[in-house]
Amino acid sequence: MSDKPKGPLDGMTVIELAHVMAGPVCGLMLADMGAEVIKVEKPAGDDTRRAVPPEIGGESAPFMMVNRNKRGIVLNLKDPRGVAILKRMLASADVVLENYRKGTMERLGLGYEELRRANPGLIHAGISGFGRTGPYAERGGFDLIAQGMSGLMAITGEGPGRAPVKVGAPVSDITAGILTAMGVAAAYAHRLQTGEGQRVDTSLFEAAITLTYWQSAIALATGVSPGPMGSAHPLNAPYQAFRTADGWINIGAANQTNWERLVQLIGAPELNDDPRFAANTGRMANLAALTETLTAIFRRKSTGEWLELLEDGGFPAGPVLSIAEMHADPQTRAREMVVATDHPVAGRVETLGLPVKSGRTPGGGRGPAPTQGQHTGEVLGEYGYGEAEGVIAAGVAG
What we know:
Helix content is 38%, strand content 15%. The chain contains 17 helices and 13 strands.
């Protein structure tokens, strides 16, 4: 990918054995930061290739979203020749990224201890359901399971007594991928100083737990587990969505100064004299009454009218956008959070951009996701394999 900008991880070679989401998100982050990521797929392909609809030109849109900027090969790891090829690749790689269940790599002869004998500097990054240690290490895991066991589903939803609700996005998958990318970057910095590789290990369970910082602080301090609050905040009020004349608006009065500014801007300064609402402790204790009072006020104008008034007054507020509206938002576009790539089959495809901007090493390459096995011959040739033996070992033919 000669057109890929040189990001901060330029020179790092990553062999991605990951599939579906958490591992590929990690690979995506590393690739966008400049690493050379070679995605190794089984002959049947990453399961996300079959996550259709939606598809673009016959290619899975979800697959293209999280596998942009990588080269793709096919290896049959049930064939000893495929395993031998992978071992040769890993002997000179900087990172191997995998999200198999515990023991799978070892059964293939690709366990960390064996790999590090051939490559002491190798960083082995693993993402699993529950981590490689502990009583649940043998369990498989999915985002839904992690959200439930981490407490996330107990704090998400409209209120007490309602059915449990998961966060709409697969947050444990995505967060686990980002955390693993952070761990890989830290391990790579250590390796540059010492030459030593190491294992990097995280899980969907731990990733989901990290998203409960505020609620865990409350539970650890009081012994009481918070419950769902809709869009409201467990520590500050008003900090939630309110219905307007034509939709919804988010109000961010996360401190006393903003509360006092809010009541002036909405023409209700008397609320600051109400003993129920004057201080944050009272507003939290009387949240239902506060919500009812403010809703009656916000229903008087449209979302657009309130946004203009509040933004002119320097108050933090925002609309509740649909995903498509977010994509079209000028700030999204200005920050290059929707980028286009030219895919060899699907044509022009838009995906999400790199959320971290660096002044000297910008990253954020524009290469598309590979078609299945697109770079098999090219990559295996770089490792000294002829076309015939590469094709057979890869399981593509023969």
